[in-house]
Amino acid sequence: MAQTTRLPAPADPQPPQAARRPHRTTHHGQTLEDDYAWLKDPAYPEVTDPDVLAYLEAENRYFEAVMAPHAPLVETLYEEMKGRLKEDDAAVPWRDGAWMYQWRFEVGAQYLRWYRWPADGDAGDAQCILDEVALSEGNAFFRLGALAVSPDGRRAAYACDFNGDERFTVQVRDLDTDTLHDLTIEGTVGRLVWDAAGDGFFYVEVTENWRPYRVRYHRLGDDPAADRTVYEEKDGAFFVGIDRTRSRRFLVITAGDHVTQEARVLRLDAPDGEPVLVAPRRRGHEYYVDHGEGRFFIRTNDRDADFRIVAAPEDHPQEVHWRELVPAEPGLYITGHAVFKRFLVLEERVDGLDQIRIRFHGEDGESHRIAFDEEAYAAELGRNAEYDVDTIRFVYESMVTPDSIVDYSVDTRTRQVRKVRAIPSGYDPALYETRRLHARARDGAMVPVSLVYRKDRYNADAPRLHLTGYGAYGLGTPPFFSPARLSLLDRGFAVAIAHIRGGDELGRAWYLAGKLNRRTNTFNDFEDAARALIKAGWARDGRISISGGSAGGTLIGAAVNQAPDLWRAAVLHVPFVDVLNTMLDAELPLTPIEWPEWGNPIDDARAFATIRAYSPYDQIRAQAYPPMLVTAGISDPRVTYWEPAKWTAKLRALKADDNAVLLKTNMDAGHGGKSGRYERLRESAEEYAFILTAFAPEASG
């Protein structure tokens, strides 16, 4: 079926046309032709090539020109979204040792300020311990990656990213004198752990190409160049991370990829000691370590893909000493665990729905789950800094219920709602309804779909649907609340999340069914969910807009190649669309760690053929496509800027339609887009304006 023009490209200005420069490579006897390979700057991670920059800037000018007539709609949407934002927002205070802590926004501020006051004192006497507003001054991008106060409460170590490349700079502030230490450590990831005495802290260094690979310990007053290497990972396919056990007694050093995890532990009161290996790595074995009351509590998939919980003495954490505490059960997926002094908290998923279970440490292992009432919802542990408590904090939300901070008494089983997201411009949840649906995929699998609509605005006779998905890395998409989404719902859209294979909504088997040589299940599930929603009356052909980001951009790229007539418009945020070329480039930091997820086409001819058959960039062909908005970040280390740029260039050269294709590259940001809260809202407003314009004149109101 020929596709009609849905958002025509303007006659003037003309869209940029990237030069075609023949480039050929051969793998497994197959030749790849890539006329736009030149868009990868040879100097990356620096981007200085004048031709590359000229093309990106031309695309940005074209984006601005095409969107200029829709500026009033963008502004309307922005003001709506801003009206739902509590501008003087503040966190529910939390206790950590002798202090209460809280972050606060001030009206008009893009970033947070962090405060504390004595636990037996008054919030009115709060001290500002970190000012993101001041730190961000003069920078187009700012992100706080870590803020860690020393155990004695005297110092705060923090890590900041100033350009979106996720290389964080560490500094230390003396909280007694409000002065900075003469210390700067660059090229780290955003995680810091103090030793028990507060004499120094641990951090993780990244390579030039952004692979976290080395744990170092800095003792205050020493030269950072002489910092001790605590652990260095030699395998280029493994990333390193650090954490602290909830008991605060151990540093946990992890090394892993997407299917294998290895951990070492080090006593925080002996920072000069050697880390102890818990269990040596073996492919496919994932385990996660916490500690409390003389034992390590370990979540492991050694016997079941959906995990069990074992315990081991703190002096003998090795696998031979593991003893089962919580067995694996059919239909039960253990997604996380946290150890407190009197009990263990398990985050679980049953039938695709989140559960939180409290298990006391007694011999009988008495346990209970917190009850939730809605048909579809999301629930997870919140900020729980203290170890010896009888109340835990969790976060609850659904597609119609704003996210709520709840304190739960594990003894009385009562809850206290501490905060519900405020919507200053007004929000009545009774006007909206959420549904939990199931779509039959072409191979018979039943794909869950979470859907929401506004009951008095949705028109079943002329339905409009916005569909999203992700489906990768075993990262499920919860049915979350979104204030921005109301701008679509209030204009009569239904919005749905397809919980497709590749995510872990239905357990690890659901994830495994959407990776490697089964990757196309993810794309088929998305199309089949859309067709099921059409059959159920929630949409019609050509009246569905779709969006996804990063690996979700792979999904959207595959969807527009596979079934272009279904979609009214598509938004691809920092999309991973050049899958084959990226997986063939072992020099990129994320490539080796990604092979267990996508396959290694360098060594495996079957993986090469499989990826080539679905890689969105490689599957662009001369057919009609829906209007598309594509975004990129010049500093993005996860999905490099040239992937969306190459996708846009090739698509524009081959497609057989007059629909607009827009590329917007953030020249001062990375994977997450712009950093300030108002700037993020404006980007959301641009996305929604693009979608509404594709449905115009019926939906642009």
From TrEMBL:
Residue limits of the Peptidase S9A N-terminal domain? 16-420
InterPro entries listed in its UniProt record: AB_hydrolase_fold (IPR029058), Pept_S9A_N (IPR023302), Peptidase_S9_cat (IPR001375), Peptidase_S9A (IPR002470), Serine_Peptidase_S9A (IPR051543)
Report the residue ranges that make up the Peptidase S9 prolyl oligopeptidase catalytic domain in this protein.
Answer: 481-695
GO terms in the biological process aspect are: proteolysis
Q: Where is this region: Disordered?
A: 1-32
The family classification in the record reads:
Belongs to the peptidase S9A family.
Q: Which UniProt keywords apply?
A: Hydrolase, Protease, Serine protease
Query: What Gene3D superfamilies does the database record attribute to this sequence?
Result: alpha/beta hydrolase (3.40.50.1820), Prolyl oligopeptidase, N-terminal domain (2.130.10.120)
At the top level, the lineage of the source is Bacteria
UniProt-listed PANTHER family: PROLYL ENDOPEPTIDASE-LIKE (PTHR11757:SF19), PROTEASE FAMILY S9A OLIGOPEPTIDASE (PTHR11757)
Protein name, as recorded: Oligopeptidase B
Q: Which molecular function term from Gene Ontology is one that the record holds? A: serine-type endopeptidase activity
What is the protein's species of origin?
Answer: Rhodothalassium salexigens DSM 2132
Task: Enumerate the Pfam families for this protein.
Answer: Peptidase_S9, Peptidase_S9_N
